[in-house]
């Protein structure tokens, strides 16, 4: 396909509006918007060239689309994605993918069966520092990772307030789906789906209907144990801040949106540019400009990859495919079940505890 | 415009390199005194223009400047609006209409229009946009604001959507109501220039990243250079050091040889860095104040 990609951005909320702006500015995209009626749709339809549809079904039926970007409230993702796939339309869906991971699995299968691109908007996988963390892990830079801390903090719910879908659990709101999904998705990228989830707490701070903070312990067989700590009622952060820290047998690795720091106990053969001791790489040096910049290279990059993949006639996403997002939906389901029942979910082959030898009070092993 | 403008990122925890450094800066500049101290150093060096977001805390700076007219007789602000977080948070909290109601005067002429009873006429929407601009400008009353910018996240959002009529509306309102120069910040300068020209805006003042390594010059390094050489834009260069990736002398020397760059905006927290940049601009570009 060498012509422009005919693409509709569905849902003009906070994410949808910026997706629409970026897609509409893309040189290979021929863009349509779609949202229910309202103030914004009203104003935009009088002021921009891109057509705006008010009904999703009519959009699908009436336009010959190559692709859609779904940025509606999370509860609507599953039926809207299905409707698009059934019409052989490639899909970019905002995160989280589906609230029920069984929907996620079914849609992953459907996309794959129809050879359609399915991509989910986990933009942290496009942040230079987190990509570098992935590269270093895959190169075995810090040896065997045993200890992981995954955190996200930011100022979303700072006082009791009017409910929106973001604060309604059944609609896919809450700190787990909105915030914790990001560090969890990174953990899935680095280590896969956890084998066991325990110690999960999802509690309210200011919200009435949903969680404002999440804690959990995730374990991987033959892999590390990770602690998750997330809170979206933290005013001390100007905006969302996600960070991952790891300790392994050969050092320590840390990344946030701006930088990737690694401490190496011994240099790693084949890993050029990294010496024994501390090494720092900045996102600014790890990132390339795309066609348009709105709020960070990662947002542009994920859409650029999607549009280019559709135009190139690819049959699967380069990154963040439906299967990977399904892994995150499933991880979140494990956390919810664990938090609700108080029972650990899944089984981990815990490293065999070493039986204590009976010794005297002051005996030394070397003695 | 002066050749050298002082920016405000360092005061509000914006740092493109390190979250830790950003937090340290937020701690250091928590008190207005600490900001004023740095602004005073810059002002005493002859850097008299403060290009700043319409952050709530700017009101306190404007108060100080107003309060000592003798000391700050040449001090001028280049406001950059809107302060996006304020609106984003309001939309999260109240929804789109609720947020608008929040920012409109209670008994104003838009109260009925915002009741949701009917679709808004274009004229009413334009009127509301003007009210929002005026509200952002309130804190600067009685100070000099010879240039007023639209800030980049907002300007680029509109640019991408093709809603450039809003940029023209801003342009016209700034000229009509304030009698000063409208200007635009963008991360996509070549695209912005073309869009503004289509709106009939001739030789716009555009602030964008311009640096030797092409850092965050979206649309391509060559397209930026072409735009500058064409003489169609009055450029303000930001990120000239590319967050520290380019040695200062080399960075300023390179900028000084570009056509079309009228001003450089930079941020610094120490007297040494302020004087260093000033000295380099004087070395390569001449007097830092407007002729």
Features:
heterodimer; A: 367 residues; alpha/beta; Rossmann fold; Dihydrodipicolinate Reductase, domain 2; 2 domains; eight-stranded mixed beta sheet; six-stranded parallel beta sheet; 32% helix; 22% strand; B: 291 residues; TIM Barrel; eight-stranded parallel beta sheet; 13% strand; globular
Number of domains of chain A: 2
Oligomer: heterodimer
Q: Structural class, judged by helices and strands of chain A?
A: alpha/beta
Which CATH-level-2 architecture of the largest domain in chain A? 2-Layer Sandwich
Task: Name the strands of the widest sheet of chain B in spatial order.
Answer: 1-8-7-6-5-4-3-2
**Helical content of chain B (DSSP H or I, runs of 4+):** 40-55%
Counted by DSSP, the helix tally of chain B is 11
Q: How does the overall form of chain B come out from the CA principal axes?
A: globular
Decide which structural class fits the backbone of chain B: alpha/beta
Largest interface: A-B, 45 and 50 residues
Summarize the main sheet of chain A: 8 strands, mixed
Fraction of residues in β-strands of chain A = 15-25%
What is the name of the CATH superfamily of chain B?
NADP-dependent oxidoreductase domain
Could you say what the CATH topology of chain B is called?
TIM Barrel
Please report the first level of CATH classification, the CATH class of the largest domain in chain A.
Alpha Beta
CATH superfamily of the largest domain in chain A: Dihydrodipicolinate Reductase, domain 2
Instruction: Please bin the fraction of helical residues of chain A.
Output: 25-40%
Low-confidence stretches of chain A: none
H-E string of chain B: EHHEHEHHEHHEHEHEHEH
What does this protein structure show overall?
The complex is a heterodimer of chains A (367) and B (291). With 367 residues, chain A is an alpha/beta fold. Chain A folds into 2 domains: 5-123 and 293-318, 3-Layer(aba) Sandwich (Rossmann fold), CATH 3.40.50.720; 125-292 and 327-341, Dihydrodipicolinate Reductase, domain 2 (2-Layer Sandwich), CATH 3.30.360.10. Chain A contains 10 helices and 14 strands. Chain A has helices at residues 14-24, 39-47, 56-62, 77-86, 101-113, 128-138, 175-191, 283-286, 297-311, 322-341, and strands spanning 5-10, 29-34, 52-53, 67-70, 90-93, 118-120, 145-153, 196-203, 213-219, 225-231, 241-248, 251-255, 259-264, 277-282. The longest helix of chain A has 20 residues, at 322-341. Chain A starts with a strand and ends in a 26-residue tail after the last helix. With 291 residues, chain B is an alpha/beta fold. Chain B has one domain (4-84, 147-285): TIM Barrel (Alpha-Beta Barrel), CATH 3.20.20.100. Chain B has helices at 19-28, 32-44, 58-67, 84-103, 122-137, 152-161, 165-178, 189-198, 221-230, 248-256, 271-285; strands at 4-6, 49-53, 76-81, 147-150, 181-185, 205-209, 234-238, 261-266. An 8-stranded parallel β-sheet of chain B has the order 1-8-7-6-5-4-3-2. In chain B, helix 10 (248-256) runs parallel beside helix 11 (271-285). Chain B is globular. Chains A and B meet through helix 1 and helix 2 of A and helix 1, helix 4 and helix 6 of B.
């Amino acid at each position: 396909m060498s012509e422009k990609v005919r693409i509709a951005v569905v849902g003009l909320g906070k994410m949808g509006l910026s997706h629409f702006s970026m897609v509409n500015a893309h040189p290979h995209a021929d863009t349509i918007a779609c949202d229910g009626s309202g103030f914004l749709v009203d104003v935009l339809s009088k002021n921009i060239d891109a057509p705006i549809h008010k009904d999703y079904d009519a959009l699908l039926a009436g336009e010959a689309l190559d692709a859609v970007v779904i940025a509606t409230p999370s509860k609507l993702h599953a039926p809207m994605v299905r409707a698009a796939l059934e019409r052989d339309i490639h899909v970019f869906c905002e995160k989280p993918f589906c609230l029920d991971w069984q929907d996620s699995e079914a849609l992953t299968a459907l996309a794959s069966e129809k050879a359609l691109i399915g991509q989910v908007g986990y933009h942290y996988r496009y942040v230079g520092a987190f990509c570098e963390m992935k590269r270093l892990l895959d190169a075995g830079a810090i040896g065997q990772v045993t200890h992981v801390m995954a955190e996200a903090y930011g100022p979303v719910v700072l006082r009791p307030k009017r409910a929106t879908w973001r604060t309604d659990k059944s609609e896919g709101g809450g700190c787990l789906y909105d915030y914790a999904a990001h560090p969890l998705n990174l953990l899935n990228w680095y280590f896969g789906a956890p084998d066991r989830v325990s110690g999960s707490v999802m509690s309210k701070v200011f919200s009435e209907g949903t969680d404002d903070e999440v804690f959990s312990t995730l374990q991987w067989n033959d892999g590390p144990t990770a602690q998750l700590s997330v809170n979206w009622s933290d005013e001390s952060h100007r905006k969302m801040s996600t960070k991952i820290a790891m300790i392994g047998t050969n050092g320590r690795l840390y990344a946030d949106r701006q930088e990737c720091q690694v401490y190496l106990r011994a240099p790693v053969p084949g890993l050029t540019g990294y010496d024994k001791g501390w090494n720092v790489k900045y996102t600014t040096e790890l990132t390339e400009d795309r066609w348009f910049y709105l709020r960070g290279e990662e947002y542009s990059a994920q859409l650029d990859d999607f549009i280019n993949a559709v135009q190139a006639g690819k049959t699967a996403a380069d990154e963040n495919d439906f299967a990977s997002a399904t892994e995150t939906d499933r991880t979140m389901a494990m956390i919810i079940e664990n938090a609700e029942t108080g029972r650990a979910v899944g089984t981990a082959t815990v490293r065999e505890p070493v039986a204590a030898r009976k010794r005297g009070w002051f005996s030394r092993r070397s003695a | 415009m002066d050749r050298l403008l002082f920016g405000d990122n360092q005061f509000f925890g914006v740092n493109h390199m390190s979250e830790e450094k950003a937090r340290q800066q937020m701690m250091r500049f928590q008190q207005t005194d600490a900001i004023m101290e740095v602004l005073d150093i810059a002002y005493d060096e002859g850097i008299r223009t403060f290009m700043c977001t319409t952050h709530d805390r700017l009101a306190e700076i404007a108060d100080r400047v107003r309060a000592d007219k003798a000391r700050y007789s040449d001090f001028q602000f280049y406001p950059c609006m809107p302060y996006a977080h304020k609106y984003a948070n309001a939309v999260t909290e109240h929804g789109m209409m609720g947020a608008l109601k929040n920012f409109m005067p209670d008994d104003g002429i838009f109260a009925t229009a915002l009741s949701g009873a009917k679709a808004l006429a274009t004229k009413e929407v334009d009127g509301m946009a003007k009210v929002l601009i005026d509200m952002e400008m309130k804190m600067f009353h009685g100070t000099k604001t010879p240039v007023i910018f639209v800030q980049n996240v907002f300007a680029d959002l509109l640019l991408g959507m093709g809603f450039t009529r809003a940029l023209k509306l801003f342009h016209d309102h700034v000229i009509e109501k304030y009698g000063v120069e409208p200007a635009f910040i963008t991360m996509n300068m070549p695209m912005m220039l073309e869009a503004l020209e289509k709106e009939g805006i001739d030789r716009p003042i555009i602030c964008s990243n311009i640096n030797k390594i092409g850092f965050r010059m979206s649309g391509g390094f060559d397209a930026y250079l072409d735009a500058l050489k064409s003489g169609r834009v009055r450029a303000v260069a930001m990120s000239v050091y590319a967050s520290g990736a380019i040695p200062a002398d080399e960075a300023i020397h390179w900028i000084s040889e570009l056509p079309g760059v009228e001003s450089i905006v930079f941020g610094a927290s120490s007297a040494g860095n302020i004087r260093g940049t000033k000295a380099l601009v004087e070395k390569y570009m001449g007097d830092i104040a407007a002729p």
